[in-house]
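Task card 7
Instruction: Convert sequence to structure tokens.
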Amino acid sequence: MNSNTANFVASGCFTTKFVELEEYLSHSKVLRDKEKNDATLSKLKLRTFWPVLLFGIFGGIYSSIDFYQKITSKTSSVTQEILNNETLKFINLIDLQQKQIDSLNQELNKINLFIKSTENEKQTN
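Output:
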């Protein structure tokens, strides 16, 4: 045996090279499986990107329109409520003034009757 053969036998002969080869092959199989899964996932992403994007845009526009309608309907209902309250106050004020005018007219009629009665008494005397 020469020194090269002794070193080869001491290093484990072909078993270490066989183990290294098996590790390399299993690692390359794992890499192939990973690349295959990555390719499948990329295809899935490509197929689902546009439909999901369009669905999201549609939902965003729909919710914006709904939000705008809710705000405007609240504003118009609040405005209508304020308008109704102010109208009711105005009607009550008109009724109150009408009652005051009627009351003053009654007092004026009483005063006029009193004046006429006193004038009639003066004329008869």
